[in-house]
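I have been asked to look over a protein record a colleague put together. Alongside the sequence sits a line of tokens, each denoting a local backbone shape. I have pasted the whole thing underneath without changing anything:
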Amino acid sequence: MKRFIVGVLGLLGLAAAGAGQPVAYDWRPSLTVEVDLDRNGQVDTAQLGVATDSIALRFTVNAESLPVIDIPIDGSKQFGVCSGSEPSIRLTAQSEAPGNALGETPQGYEICSKCFEVVVGGGDCDPLHFYWDTTTNKLSWWRS
């Protein structure tokens, strides 16, 4: 199985590769989740913005806004979501799922009672899982 894991800088590089005109996203309050992602005792937020051909994900971690991550609505892209249903965002506890799906646990991925990941999906594609990498102290992601 292939392992699809990169840090935030890699995500921004993927997003910038298709960059053209700025996209106007609809930042809906209903597509916001709150959790202590980096487990420092402060509430962090993740919000999904929706446009015609893409979605965007913005995080505020430790009261700092991270760069917006553009995600195409295109099931043929490794870092994309499928069309066919409304894009979604949710929280889930970090678990054995990436080890089972990928054959190994991603770098800096921990399983604990306070460890959560942000899951972004749409359509019938496997969702994107964003988690706090405790090795690099940066946002990272995985997908099966």
Summary: Residues 7 and 140 are 4 Å apart (CA to CA). Residues 1-18 have pLDDT under 50 and may be disordered.
